[in-house]
Specification:
The structure holds 2 protein chains of 2 kinds. Helices cover 38% and strands 24% of the residues of chain A. Chain A is of the alpha+beta class. In chain A, helix 11 packs parallel to helix 12. The longest helix of chain A is centred in the middle third of the chain and has 17 residues. About 4% of the residues of chain B have low confidence. The two termini of chain B are 23 Å apart. By secondary structure, chain B is of the alpha/beta class. In chain B, strand 6, helix 4 and strand 7 form a beta-alpha-beta unit. Helix content of chain B is 36%, strand content 22%. In chain B, helix 7 packs parallel to helix 9. Classes of the chains: A alpha+beta, B alpha/beta. At the A-B interface, strand 7, strand 8, helix 4, strand 10 and helix 9 of A face helix 4, helix 5 and helix 8 of B.
Chain lengths: 402, 292
């Protein structure tokens, strides 16, 4: 789960990590009130959307008068931020962070994350702050410092000082850096973060180290033990289908095409999208109903696809293991009662209780007049789904040109 | 031969009294797996469908001589269950549970690396391991498997079943199939298992199923090129997955490599692995390779 910058900075404050004075605003007059409370001569307005690269897209503005705060906030609120990460549809700005401007003497980079290979937490630091760390790793790898963190002993101030030294910080800053780094690590561990990134971490005009930006991603699997973090989830950032999916604990990603997919297992779900594309079609979504899905969950999953207006054909690809085909079939029938539709449903069932599942579907389809097409194999079903979605011989043309 | 499990494997089910534990224990038994005990803290002395339940793993082993366990415990307690298996020095622990926090798995792996226990872990968030006709430790549909010469290693559960079905329809059975799980931190990985398949006389060909993210497949490819003498067929899922949905960037610089499906497929091909482009062609590729 991604946190907004203002949420992340709120967490950091609880750990006495220095962050600039700030407040959140959802109207321009709110923004003005926050700026006045903060006092000072300059402020930064930052769009609160889940999108890296927002600065370049006009989502960060420095203002130097109260009138500018009001005008720029008016402009920014409601605007659409389009970056590589948001896709062409972009994200609407609903809230902005109003922050006291900081005088920057030096910009550095600091992050904590999970190193999958080493199966440990890792800290990454760089003397080059304020730019993307991938870019630094590519152009100036010697400026990137990494170290693993021992889960038993934690980080330790010594490691903080060592890192500070190796990224070339002035000796007078060693203890201060080590202190901030250790507090950040504690916040990272305590909240089951997958990543905590401060870019840039700066030295201000008074020689104080302060976090200008903060990106935090929390392990979704650990949210059960962080109810206060879970409450921070911003459903406004999600597509309507994605909101419904998150309520029912389904893994769903919206896409551009017209073939709705319901699959069990992330690997098979991705492979299903792959084979649709290879046959000249376009998937409308990635949807993994997951292990242990019951009829109700399948019903909700199927409803999410049915309520997506761009879906022309639904492709159900289930290989039952922990998920039983009979439950899948029941779920499909129930969802079709809730949201009647004459769209074609291409079904490929295999694995646990497959015979029962097929029987339930056949009988249900007869009763309710559902447009169910059966595919014997994944390849066969994918071909049928793509053909039905094209509606005519366009499939062959697309194939020929692919 | 086969690897990891066979007809001498004696299995304890951790979390036997839960609905998943109960359901799959029945199916494993029906398949012929030697389920000797269950461990459910606080339920010691009872039984589930005739299988004796113990409070602790230690007691279960003492009473039954069990050498492996399978975990169906809910995510909040699953890491603890794995650590109990490791502490009891079982040969193998298979963890089916989905949704274990990464931080808990870091602790588990720390224990495994620093203790003297010999326990090997498969999973979590995986379908388990099966040696067809001998032992099924997992949630896979047993009936689609049959004994044979193809070893399968996969990050994905259902895609493994797909591969099993395809090779089966072309007349090839499996030596052992392992779902290693798709979580960030897991037990045995591709290379650990390839090493075992190298010395398994029954295995003539290995299918390696991967997906986008991490460098595990690329590393496996490099290892195969240097060390593995049997043909390997691979499929990588996620060729059409949208790029850049992830917000954080820092993860990619650990390996410094490209973790897209296309990059992995190319790397594997360069290492002499036979790569199937379509998930529907995994079986065909295996048949082609074994006929050579």
């Amino acid at each position: 789960m991604y946190l907004h910058e203002f949420q992340a900075k709120g967490l950091l404050r609880n750990y006495d990590v220095p962050v600039p004075g700030h407040g959140v605003a959802s109207t321009a007059s709110d923004a003005l009130r926050v700026a006045k409370e903060l006092k000072g001569e300059a402020w930064v307005l930052k769009a609160q959307v889940h999108a890296g690269g927002r600065g370049k897209a006009g989502g960060v503005k420095i203002v130097k008068a109260f009138s500018e705060v009001y005008d720029e906030a008016t402009q920014m609120l409601g605007m659409k931020i389009v970056t590589q990460q948001t896709g062409p549809e972009g994200k609407i700005v609903r809230r902005i962070l109003v922050e006291k401007a900081t005088e920057i003497k030096q910009e550095i980079y600091l992050s904590f994350l999970v190193d999958r290979e080493a199966e440990q937490h890792m800290v990454i630091a760089s003397s080059e702050g304020g730019v993307e760390i991938e870019e630094v790793a590519r152009t100036k790898p010697s400026a990137v410092v990494k170290a693993h963190l021992n889960p038993v002993t934690g980080m330790g101030h010594f490691l903080g000082r060592k890192i500070a030294k190796s990224i070339g910080l002035d000796s007078s800053l060693l203890n201060q850096f080590a202190d901030v780094a250790n507090k950040l690590y504690q916040c990272f561990v305590d909240h089951d973060c997958m990543m905590l990134e401060i870019n840039p971490l700066v030295v201000d005009g008074e020689g104080q180290i302060i976090c200008l930006d903060a990106k935090i991603t929390v392990d979704d699997n650990a949210l059960y033990r962080h109810p206060r973090i879970e409450e921070m989830k911003d459903y406004g950032e999600l597509e309507p289908q994605e909101v419904r999916a998150s309520i029912f604990d389904l893994s769903y990603v919206s896409m551009e095409g017209n073939i709705g997919c319901m699959v069990n297992g992330a690997g098979l779900a991705m492979a299903t999208m792959d084979i649709i594309k290879q046959n000249g079609g376009d998937p409308a979504n990635f949807l993994d109903v997951g292990g242990g899905a019951d009829a109700n969950k399948v019903r909700e999953a199927f409803k999410i696809i049915l309520t997506d207006p761009q879906v022309k054909v639904i492709f159900v690809n289930i290989f039952g293991g922990i998920v039983r085909c009979d439950l899948i079939a029941e779920g499909i029938l129930k969802a079709s009662e809730d949201v009647p539709s004459d769209r074609h449903i291409v079904v490929r069932l295999d694995g646990t209780n497959v015979e029962e599942g097929r029987k339930i579907l056949q009988e249900g389809a007869k009763k309710s007049g559902l447009n169910i097409v059966t595919g014997n194999t994944m390849a066969d079903a994918a071909k049928k789904a793509v053909k039905l979605a094209a509606g005519d011989d366009k499939t062959d043309q697309k194939k020929a040109s692919a | 031969m086969s690897i990891l499990v066979n007809n001498r494997t004696k299995v304890v089910v951790q979390g036997l009294s839960g609905s998943q534990g109960k359901f799959h224990a029945q199916r494993m038994k029906a398949y012929g797996t030697n389920i000797v005990a269950g461990v459910v803290p606080g339920r010691g002395g009872s039984d589930v469908d005739g299988t004796p339940v113990f409070d602790t793993m230690e007691e279960a082993i003492r009473s039954t001589g069990a050498n492996a366990s399978i975990v169906y415990v809910p995510p909040a307690y699953a890491a603890d269950a794995i650590m109990e298996a490791v502490d009891a020095n079982l040969d193998l622990c298979v963890c089916i549970t989905e949704g274990i926090p990464v931080r808990d798995m870091i602790k588990v792996k720390r224990l495994m690396k620093t203790s003297s226990s010999r326990t090997m872990l498969i999973g979590p968030n995986c379908p388990g391991v099966i040696t067809p006709g001998e032992c099924k430790m997992g949630i896979m549909p047993g009936e689609i498997h049959k004994p044979g010469t193809v070893g399968i290693i996969s990050k994905s559960g259902t895609l493994t079943y797909e591969a099993v079905k395809q090779v089966g329809e072309l007349g090839y059975g499996q030596s052992t199939c392992i779902g290693i799980g798709g979580d960030p931190i897991i037990g045995l990985k591709y290379i650990d298992l390839l090493k075992m398949f190298q010395y398994d006389a029954q295995t003539e060909c290995v299918v390696l199923i991967g997906e986008i993210g991490s460098q595990a497949e690329v590393k496996a490819g490099e290892w195969i090129k240097q060390n593995f003498s049997k043909p390997v067929v691979s499929f990588i899922a996620g060729q059409t997955a949208p790029a850049g949905k992830r917000m954080g960037h820092a993860g990619a610089i650990i390996s410094g490599g490209d973790d897209t499906a296309a990059a992995k497929m190319k790397a594997l091909e360069e290492c002499g692995v036979y790569v199937a482009k379509s998930p529907a062609d995994i079986g065909k590729k295996v048949a082609e390779v074994l006929k050579k």
